[in-house]
Amino acid sequence: MRTATVVALLIAASAAADPPRATPEELVGLLGDPSFAVREKATAALWAAGKDAAPALRKAAADPRPEVARRARGVLARFEWFDYPDTPPDVRAALRRFLDATGRERHAAFADLVALSPSGRAAGRAVLDNALDPAVRDPLAAFILTHLRREVPARVGAGDTATAAELVALHATRSGTPAGAADFAAFHVLSGTLPQAVADAEAAPPSPAADRVLAHLYRAARAWPKARAAAKRVDEADADRRSKLGQPPPTLVETLLEEEGDWSAARDLPASRPANLPEALRLTYQRLTGTPEQFDAGVKQVAALGQGSDENVRDAAHALMLNLRVPDAEELLASRRQSTGLLAEVYIARLRYRDALWNTFPAIEPASAFGRVDTDLRRGRVLALTGDRAGATKLFAEIAKTLTELPDPVVGADWGDFSAARRGLIRSELRAGFRELACEHAGAFLTSGGGAGASLPEARTESFFDLLFGADADAAEAIFRAHRPGQLADGGPTMKLVRELLLGTAPPAAVGAALDALAGEPPPLPGGSPFIGDAGSQRRQRQSRLTAAGLVARAAGKHPEAEAAFAKAAESAAEDAVAGGARAWVYGTSDAFRPWVEYGDYLADRGRFVDAAARFEEGWKKFPDAPLLLFLSGQALIKAGRVDEGRRRVELSHWVPLGNERVRGRFLEDLVKRGEAKAAARETDLLLRACWSRDFYFGNVINQAGRAAVLNKDWATAERCVQRAIFVLLKTPDVSYVDPAAYLHVPHDMLQYRARAKLAAGDVPAAMVLARQYLDVTPGSVELSAGMVPELERRGNNKEADELFDRVWAAHRKVLADFPASASSRNALAALGAHCRRELDAARTYAREAVASDPKAAGYRETLAEVLFRRGERAEAVKLMEALTTEYPRSRLYRRQLARYRTGDPAGDLPDADAD
């Protein structure tokens, strides 16, 4: 009778306006009815019941009767794809498009779906909850990451924070990717909703994706024990997947322990992959966790391992340097009579120039041609430092000849050795102040028969153009190419001309010829081209030529031509045109948006702030993952008087990267270079709370966070960041410092930062102990004295201030006594006097003598201007800095200094600015 009643209700449902409703359980009972019509109507009625029918359907899906189970699973499948009776028609249509599409069309359909409404986003969650084929899920997850990282900040900017929250949650909780969880944490830190997000995540059903989100949220909230517990569950769930990766990223627990500074626990973790420098890593853990006696024993063990090959000696020396034991490294290198280039770096840092020139190198012959070059590069620098510019020029020229004539590649040599040696020469010449010589040799390498060895064809290292021209590298390369189409003659004069064109010192005829050359269509790059940084994109070459034309015209004062070229370059910029760009190798990011920065900066420098803001914003709309453009747009509006809107855009710029550590690192570099201390501090906090170490790029990212902390005088954070950057080097296979001197200087920066932190906290005795340790290795550090002497004086610790100043002053005076022609030592003494506001009469004499020895050296003139300003000779200081600003119009540091000299207090602190 009951079955007949339910059937009657089903029949009545088609005729009655408000028929009695059967329960889901009653309808499930009819799924196995003998009548096909009854089964069909019961199935339809269950679907019409919507979510209320789901419990009964799930139970029926396990029914032993095949027909009942099949029909129940069929209705549930429709629910799983968000096909409910109340699903809006537009959502249902978008779902259908998604299911029917493939590839990019499928991704576009998903974007349309989640943009529709809350129901569309619920449908998107349903899609991601389904067991999609990996061939569909993985590309979809990658698309969602890129799409939402652009859509979420845009929604926030439009005031639609609720939709932004739904979108970022959809990615984090459904795709289960680390990037999605990082974005989710960043969003809630930025929006101030972190506590509620933590509570909601704690209440969610347990799953690996939920644990990943919890680990990221707890870490952002600095709830370390909870973060580690969730991260441990994630790492356990990821174990099988990680085992299949050749070089898996650090585990979440590993990253958390390093950030927290729990070195004992980090040491005891199973290794996630083979270490890059295992002995250095082991010694670092002994330094951070052991007793002094244990650490000393570890030092002896590492020194004993430095035997045999040059590589073993070098690795042992690196391990000692990275752990602040430079004297032990020096003893090892000198006794083994190997890696003499590295030994020379120690001597240079310790101002032991006689040892570097005459004691070590005639007695120790390097084991290879590259070893000889490596050693001679340091000798050339020392000759320059001690005032023998002619000798340095001759030696650098001999090295260049050797590197041009060596077979390419050298038989039995590592390709990287050859490339690194050439870049090492250019870097050494630049450090010695021989910029024109560096241009000559770089150009010759690029157009010599062995030009292909000029740099590695990878995105992980710098090109000659990066070394010589920094942010203008792409433009410089475009000018060089435009002047040498298909020619293989000596490119040295051309590279010098490139520099003159960018500085505005080229003759008018050369400027006109350059603009004509840049106006032409760039030829396709031939296979095996010696030129750097391009895979053959015509669009990129055209864009780089336009930017270069703008820079050349601007430097020459041709402003109509400059503006027209910048505008065309910006309009031609497209994401598919530039995979890399200047400095892109540092972070693994694209610089495709740079033409818009150049255009906006040009307008802002001309005082056209409203126009600049519009161009920056227009560029950001084309490149919504470029936070710098939005930040600069806001700044320009503030300068134009539209303060509220300007501040809104500046704030929104910090949302743009979300949890993307590479983009935040690149943004940080720009902020630090522009002296934007407040914004850099904000970025550093977001990076440390929401971004994770995933690959070797993180070493550069966390290093930028350290520089930002220095800019803000947050010494404790700076030290922690340096140590974390060193751990990336120690652990990540095939990672090394671009400049070998960094193995000595980077770890010792931690001593300086720790000393500054102790001094800021009022612990003067501890600060002095650390400062003395630092000066034991780098006795000529003007930076340490300039930072600590004025602060010690303010605190009334004049005896300690005298000690630090006198020690560094005496170190450079000794060099000058040994090498009376040393302009470098004169410049150091002048800078020390200026920054510490002591010995200003002598400082002025030294500064003028340094400038007289090399009138073109911008650094020497910069120091003289600072000395004059400190002495109250404001007019002459302003005149000098005006000249430097004219010669180097791209230098924001010089512009900031000029403003300071005009109106600042000569007794005030040094400006918070990093060199350009």
TrEMBL record:
<dbReference type="InterPro" id="IPR011990">
    <property type="entry name" value="TPR-like_helical_dom_sf"/>
</dbReference>
<dbReference type="InterPro" id="IPR011989">
    <property type="entry name" value="ARM-like"/>
</dbReference>
<feature type="region of interest" description="Disordered">
    <location>
        <begin position="233"/>
        <end position="252"/>
    </location>
</feature>
<protein>
    <recommendedName>
        <fullName>Tetratricopeptide repeat protein</fullName>
    </recommendedName>
</protein>
<feature type="compositionally biased region" description="Basic and acidic residues">
    <location>
        <begin position="233"/>
        <end position="243"/>
    </location>
</feature>
<feature type="signal peptide">
    <location>
        <begin position="1"/>
        <end position="17"/>
    </location>
</feature>
<keyword id="KW-0732">Signal</keyword>
<dbReference type="InterPro" id="IPR016024">
    <property type="entry name" value="ARM-type_fold"/>
</dbReference>
